[in-house]
Write a structure and sequence with these properties.
By secondary structure, this protein is an alpha/beta fold. 54% of the residues lie in helices and 7% in strands. Helix 25 links the parallel strand 4 and strand 5. Helix 32 crosses helix 36. The longest helix has 35 residues.
Length: 1059
């Protein structure tokens, strides 16, 4: 530290002395000194033992700081705060009993226990009823095991099942299941409200009916439920809107009512072990009667005769059977259990009676009189759907995870203990009810045979009002809890921003309440109330809960099977097989219960899933579906690694090598459009650019370039991947990319690279990079496509007509045939016609060649016009010698003159233009690099402003103008080389081929929308003159053509005539 202080003092003295001497000190040095002193001051605050890590501590926290932040992590969702309010007291952390066990007990025990369980037992019998309850309890137990594993795999913020599923299966599944859970919770509120109204109107105040005697008309009953349910919903909605505190306090009262009611039922069962004389039923033969005073239950009474003998004509069944009084509650000691063992399923309209004789259950005369009939068709699966809501509510503990002292301990223990407790109560109730109550009374859903009394209430001790009041209050409390929780769940989904149209429901009121979500919840709940029937609502909401539970099991199974490193639950008593069994049970129960309700729930989930996938925000939550995709990809890649694909499966896996300009923008945008148009082959597309430099210094620049590249790919709708490579040399970087890109069998097999339009102006570096890339592609046995005039290519959203001409000079694996077929699959090229040209020499039979080519195309299933062009042997023209001589002179002349790049461009273009004007008559399209500064246009008297497709487009001009501004040294050098140099015969023959082919191609295909031809191979000798000559040959070959695609195969067949 003393050394550092001395250094600071010396620096300060130097600065002061320079000021006194009148010298101007460098601002940059001053800034660096300030930065250095700031760094030294910061280091002075670092523990001397940590100097080795001083650079890391700026971006990475010290271990003590990190652990402290983890230990003090708050997993509750912060509520809205009042700035003027006093700071609240820290909330008490709840344990297992208060935080998980009791809330689960309250939510699981519901209205079905009191108003439907006896009917389920009587209809299904003791055996089937036990199986129904056991099946539902198994579903929830297996789901609880899976949920415990997920909940103990790290800290679970408040959000419950939605949070667990969305973070385990991804935003698509999470959003879909979250909406299903929200809908199920909302419909549960509707069911609780209708159930509460049913308890009041049917068993407590039947005189309050506003639609007449509902015991004789089921429609009147359901209309009463709709009207009173709507009124009760509005009242409860106002309570939730105004006083959430009241709802939370009322939950304690409701819980106490539930526990006391169940205790009263158990005490009553053993108190009435020998039955009681409170309830008697009137039975005609074996049929159960209603609205018959027990004192009038005799055949001799005029009351009965008036009912069954109107107009002095008696009912046959009445005449043939006796009337008897039957005790309703017989007690466990009576042995009535054996009468209730087997099921008594009925169809709608059949009479409730002992046994299964058709004469007793069938309504032959279509007259019901006072006999009780089945209001719905009952089956084993339907009863599962009706009972299943009784076992829901297992998520209550996980929903409160933010308020628990130790959520990872409390959630598994509390939830599983609650399920064991409730399952024991339900299963024992099935047996006790079957052993206590007469079969006919059990099947009397609304207690019409005993004067509209609740069966369970008349079993309880000390009297029925304990159950009536307790069940009403508990049902009311459950409804308030649902109306409170559902809007908050919807708000949590909206705040995750995975479903865009839910954005308005993410806002809270000034008091922090989800008012908008509450209004929507009330509207949906009202739709459920309009159904007016618990027996319709129960199976419907069962679907939504079953879907939710099924996805919880799926999430646990996926995470376990994938064995992701982050999957380390503290709860160890789980297994993927249990989760799969739970998932299978959920799906089976859904289908068995009601296949059409299952389709509704499944369709809703699929629609939401696809909507989130299409319009939702991209979220990366480290979910299991992504892990499953990685596992599937790994499996597929390992299989693809077994060998190269068959010719029939070959498709272009494209590697686009995009050049970036100084602003890090792709130089040729339409190269991405062209890749998209080739994607009809459904192959892989990878776009890569190479930056020159040191990656450690320009890493941020590479990130920006990758972002830009990705944006261009998105704009052009290229489905694939992009990357940036930083290398010391562009050529070496391109070579590395071509050799190493891809993974296993998903390596690109086709490279698209742009044509270097400014190769003459930029000199050897430009063509050397291009040719080196061509050689590397060939060495890797990959196909190569070089689009020339790329910015004249059509956009992907345009449609063009005309011809696509294929000039098939040499067979190169059939790629020339496959590419136009793939292009025609895209709508841009769909209206184009294919024309295939091939060249015949003097010794070839052109007629037979055309016939064979047509046959070949027929077997390939490709429709195209065929033309064979004959090229006769002709003497090499003077122009060919002149052009070859000009090509060979260029490099020697430039070396002798020692010109710079700008003068290089002027002299070369002067010579080329001179020979164009002297020997060529047809106008040509010349491609130049529009990104270089063309200062010669400013110096020329005949300046012409160029127009192009875009700023990077190669330009289309008329025949180039000659420049008369050559200096004397250039003219002398030109004459000197012309007199002394003779062209090489090898170059002359190649130039002759290029010129002759170009003449034929221009004649036939000048107006074609695209010309596809073979790309000649690069020279084997790595010499500047040979490489420059190769580039000149390609220029000559493509002169006069606007859009050219030069193709070179990868050395294997890519198309076959076989199926």
């Amino acid at each position: 530290m003393q050394n550092n202080s001395a250094k600071d003092d010396s620096d300060e003295m130097e600065i002061i002395s320079s000021e006194h001497n009148g010298t101007v000190h460098d601002t940059k040095n001053e800034d660096s000194g300030d930065i250095h002193r700031a760094e030294e001051n910061q280091k002075s605050n670092i523990d001397p033992n940590l100097y080795l890590y001083d650079d890391d501590l700026a971006t990475r926290p010290h271990i003590s700081t990190f652990i402290s932040s983890i230990a003090n992590y708050e997993n509750t969702i912060p509520a809205a705060t009042d700035p003027d309010a006093k700071p609240p007291q820290p909330s008490a952390r709840m344990g297992t009993l208060i935080g998980v066990f009791l809330p689960c007990i309250q939510n699981i025990f519901g209205v079905i226990l009191f108003i439907r369980l006896t009917w389920v037992v009587g209809t299904a019998g003791a055996v089937c009823g036990f199986l129904i309850v056991l099946t539902c309890c198994c579903v929830t137990m297996l789901t609880a095991i899976s949920m415990s594993a997920i909940a103990t795999n790290g800290v679970v913020p408040a959000g419950g099942s939605y949070f667990m599923i969305s973070r385990s299966l991804g935003p698509e599944f999470g959003g879909a299941v979250g909406m299903l859970f929200y809908t199920g919770t909302t419909l549960a509120a509707a069911m609780y409200i209708v159930g509460a109204v049913e308890i009041v109107l049917t068993y407590m105040a039947p005189w309050a009916s506003i639609f007449g005697d509902f015991t004789k008309d089921a429609d009147a009953m359901y209309n009463n439920f709709r009207v009173y349910g709507t009124v009760l919903l509005i009242f409860m909605g106002l309570i939730v809107f105004v006083g959430v505190k009241f709802v939370n306090k009322f939950a304690t009262v409701a819980l106490a009512c539930v526990i006391l009611s169940i205790i009263a039922v158990y005490v009553g069962i053993f108190d009435n072990i020998h039955g009681n004389e409170k309830l008697y039923m009137c039975v005609l033969g074996k049929r159960l009667l209603k609205d018959i005073p027990i004192d009038n239950c005799t055949k001799d009474d005029s009351f009965m005769r008036d009912i069954y003998c109107p107009n002095n004509k008696c009912d046959d069944y009445y005449l043939n059977n006796n009337v008897s009084k039957v005790k309703g509650i017989k007690g466990l000691a009576s042995g009535v259990f054996y009468d209730n063992v087997w099921p008594s399923f009925l169809e709608k309209g059949q009479f409730i009676s002992y046994g299964r004789d058709s004469i007793d259950i069938e309504n032959i005369d279509n007259e019901s009189y006072n006999q009780i009939m089945a209001d719905i068709t009952t089956t084993f699966t339907l009863l599962i759907g009706i009972f299943f809501p009784s076992v829901t509510g297992i998520m209550a503990g996980s929903n409160r995870s933010g308020d628990l002292a130790d959520a990872q301990k409390s959630i598994p223990i509390g939830t599983i203990c609650a399920i064991l407790t409730t399952s024991t109560v339900y299963l024992s109730s099935v047996l006790f009810f079957a052993g206590t109550v007469d079969n006919l009374l059990l099947r009397d859903k609304f207690g019409q045979s005993i004067g509209g009394k609740l069966v369970v209430a008349n079993i309880a001790w000390p009297n029925q009002w304990v159950i009536l009041i307790g069940s009403f209050l508990s049902t009311l409390g459950a409804g308030l809890q649902s109306l409170t929780g559902a809007p908050r769940l919807l708000q949590a989904i909206a705040r995750d921003e995975i479903i865009p149209f839910l954005a308005p429901f993410a806002k809270s009121s000034n008091r922090g309440e989800p008012t908008r979500a509450l209004l929507l919840t009330i509207v949906i709940c009202q739709c459920g109330i309009l159904l007016g029937n618990v027996d319709l609502l129960a199976p419907l909401l069962s679907m939504f809960f079953l879907m939710c539970y099924g996805f919880v099991n799926l999430a646990c199974a996926v995470q376990t099977l994938l064995r992701t490193p982050n999957w380390r639950p503290r709860f160890k008593f789980y297994h993927w097989s249990l989760s799969l069994i739970g998932l299978t049970l959920c799906i089976s129960v859904m289908i068995m219960t009601s296949w059409y309700f299952a389709l509704i729930a499944l369709s809703m989930a699929i629609v939401i899933y696809k909507y989130i996938e299409y319009r939702g925000a991209e979220k990366e939550w480290g979910d299991g579906i992504r892990g499953m995709a990685l596992t599937a990809a790994r499996f597929s890649l390992l299989r693809l690694e077994e060998g190269p694909p068959h010719t029939k499966n070959w498709r272009p896996q494209i590697l686009v090598l995009s050049k970036l300009n100084d602003n890090l923008l792709p130089k040729y945008r339409k190269i991405f459009s062209f890749a998209t148009q080739l994607k009809a082959g459904k192959g892989l597309t990878i776009c890569v650019s190479v930056l020159k430099g040191d990656h450690t210094k320009i890493a941020n620049k590479a990130v920006d370039a990758k972002s830009t590249l990705r944006k261009y790919m998105t704009d052009e709708k290229v489905k694939g991947f992009c990357d940036i490579l930083v290398a010391q040399q562009i050529g070496e970087g391109l070579s590395s990319v071509i050799q190493t890109i891809g993974l296993g069998g998903m390596k690109p097999n086709t490279v698209i690279i742009g044509w270097p339009y400014s190769w003459r102006q930029e000199g050897r570096n430009s063509w050397r990079t291009f040719i080196q890339t061509v050689r590397t592609v060939a060495a890797c046995h990959m196909a190569l496509m070089v689009p020339k005039g790329i910015n004249f290519y059509p956009e992907s959203n345009h449609k063009i007509g005309g011809n696509i001409d294929i000039w098939w000079i040499v067979h190169d694996g059939g790629l020339l045939m496959l590419l136009p077929f793939l292009l025609k699959q895209h709508r841009t090229w769909r209206n184009c016609k294919l024309r295939i040209f091939t060249v015949a020499q003097i010794e070839d039979n052109s007629i037979q060649m055309k016939k064979d080519l047509k046959t070949f195309l027929y077997h390939l299933r490709i429709e195209a016009d065929v033309e064979v062009v004959e090229m006769n042997n002709s003497d090499i023209s003077a122009y060919t010698y002149e052009r070859t001589l000009m090509m060979e002179q260029r490099n020697q002349m430039l070396r002798a003159l020692g010109l710079n790049k700008k003068e290089n461009s002027k002299v070369v273009q002067t010579i080329v233009d001179h020979h164009y004007d002297a020997t060529r008559t047809a106008s040509k399209v010349r491609f130049a690099d529009p990104t270089t500064e063309e200062t010669q246009n400013h110096e020329s008297h005949n300046d012409e402003k160029r127009n192009s497709v875009d700023s990077d487009a190669p330009e289309e001009t008329d025949a180039p103008e000659t420049t008369s501004s050559k200096d004397e040294s250039t003219e002398k050098a030109d004459s000197k080389f012309k007199s002394n140099v003779k062209p090489d015969e090898f170059n002359v023959r190649r130039m002759h081929t290029a010129i002759k082919l170009n003449e034929v191609i221009v004649e036939k295909s000048q107006d074609a929308q695209l010309v596809i031809m073979n790309l000649p191979g690069p020279p084997r000798e790595v010499r500047a003159e040979r490489e420059s000559n190769y580039m000149e040959f390609l220029e000559v070959l493509t002169e006069g053509l606007e859009k050219v695609l030069m193709v070179r195969g990868g050395g294997r067949e890519v198309i076959t005539i076989y199926s």
